[in-house]
Amino acid sequence: MMIRYASYFIAVLLPLLLFRWFAPASIGEIDFWLLWLLAMVLVALPVVYAEIALAYRSVEGPLAGMQKLTRESDASPIWRSFGWLAALVSIVIAALIISGASTGILTALTELNSTPDVPSFAVAAGLMVITVLLSLLGTAPLPIGLGLMVIGLILSIANGVPNISFAMTDISLVEWARAVALALVSVGAGTGLYWFGQNLVSKQTVTAVEANSQQAQSRAARDYRATKLVLPIWILQLLVGVVALFISGMSLPPIGQLLYWAGVLFVASYLLHYSTQQLAHKFGLLVSLIITFVLALLLVIAIPTTWLVGILVIVSSIAVLLLSVFAGWQMKISHLRKSLNFSSEAFYNLWRVAIRLVVPLALLLALIGWVIQWLS
User: Fold this and answer.
1) Mean pLDDT across the stretch 146-166?
2) Greatest CA span in the chain, whole angstroms?
3) What gap in Å lies between CA 329 and CA 106, rounded to an integer?
4) Where are the transmembrane segments (predicted)?
């Protein structure tokens, strides 16, 4: 049952997890909100459609699915690197939020006069070990993590909501870069999480349908539409994103912080579970679990949090760029049209223009904006 709703839990959790690192210094910037909404429509929405379409076509996870799809399309094996990058992005996100959790937990314990006499990197390493063990539970930790995070946020709201003054500011490439990054993390673009979730659901559906008649199989294929899967996820992300923007500047009380960051560990465990499952296609489950643990541990201990944000921006942008170019230029038109199954040919043409031209151009402009910010 949890498998069917895993994508919706992720849609709610990603904005709550990551907005604090990408929200503007002043949440009252109206132009930033508008740019974020534009990026959600022009970049995030076409990419989620692409993930769902490729998941339906491949009936495999991202790593195995890209191998199958490149063979079908007679495309270069270089496009298969999306599967590897998707697993890496999920590990980087897990490392980023666990690094934040170690800092937040130590801050809360300091306020409670209960600071442990251990270095911060040791706390982060201990949290990583706990998270990897939780990853063995699969999708089960997701509702627990969401519940703990929501309780922690409610405790902070009880202390009062900050007064926000709205104003227009100058629009720049740097602001566009932050808006695109926020849109990408809002939908988990570049992670393959929705591809993975749809793959799990598809396998269950195929197994159930195979037990029925051929007529039932054809009816299931005829009733499938990517929009039925994509729009609920995207609208949920949009609504939660607005809420996350409002509360990203709030300070949590000590107990609220402990509950919130405990929930974060449960959610991070699913990200590590996903990356382990992807790598298992190549290395086997045990070796993949060790690789995931070692890589995530190194990122948490050796890389500062601000650098992890930069790594996440670069790797996720490259992953989304690969996905958009492959879906827009390498895949066969007939395969994508059937996988999306739009009700109108006009909708398909709009999506195709967006995934082929708009998404790559928006990502390149955003990367230029990030370079300008880092150089300044």
Assistant:
1) 79
2) 67
3) 48
4) 35-56, 77-98, 118-137, 144-164, 176-196, 229-252, 258-276, 283-303, 309-329, 350-372
Cα angle 40, 4, 91 (rounded to 5 degrees) comes to 60
CB 268 within 8 A of CB 94: yes
Burial of 301 (0-12, 13-18, 19+ CB in 10 A): middle
Strand-pair partners of 167: 29
Is 70 exceeded by the pLDDT of residue 222? Answer: no
* AA identity, residue 53: A
Measuring CA to CA, which residue among 195, 138, 178 is closest to residue 319?
A: 195
Q: What is the mean pLDDT of residues 27-38?
A: 85
pLDDT of 208 > 50? The answer is no
Percent of the chain residues past pLDDT 70, beyond the cut: 89
Query: For the chain, first and last CA: distance in Å?
Result: 49
Residue whose structure tokens are 């930033």? 32
What local confidence, expressed as pLDDT, does residue 166 receive?
A: 73
Asked if residue 95 lies in contact with residue 300, where contact means CB atoms within 8 angstroms, the answer is: yes
Q: State which CATH number among 2.30.30, 1.10.1740, 1.20.1740, 3.30.70 fits the domain covering 2-375.
A: 1.20.1740
CA distance 208 to 35: 43
Residue 192 gets which letter from DSSP? Answer: T
Q: Select from 54, 11, 355, 38 the least CA-distant residue to 188.
A: 11
Residue 14: per-residue pLDDT: 86
Contact 278, 87 (CB under 8 A): yes
Residue 148: what pLDDT?
Answer: 93
The two three-digit tokens of residue 98, written as one number: 């666990």
Q: What is the dihedral of CA 172, 174, 175, 180, to 10 degrees?
A: 120
* Cα–Cα distance, 306 to 189 (Å, whole number): 20
Mean of the per-residue pLDDT values of the chain:
85
Burial zone of 15 (CB within 10 Å; 0-12 exposed, 13-18 middle, 19+ buried): buried
Instruction: Assess whether pLDDT exceeds 50 at residue 71.
Output: yes
Rounded CA gap, 81 and 339, in Å?
22
In tens, the pLDDT along 288-326 reads 999 999 999 999 999 998 899 889 988 999 999 999 999
Q: Which of 38, 329, 36, 268 lies closest to 132, judged by CA?
A: 268
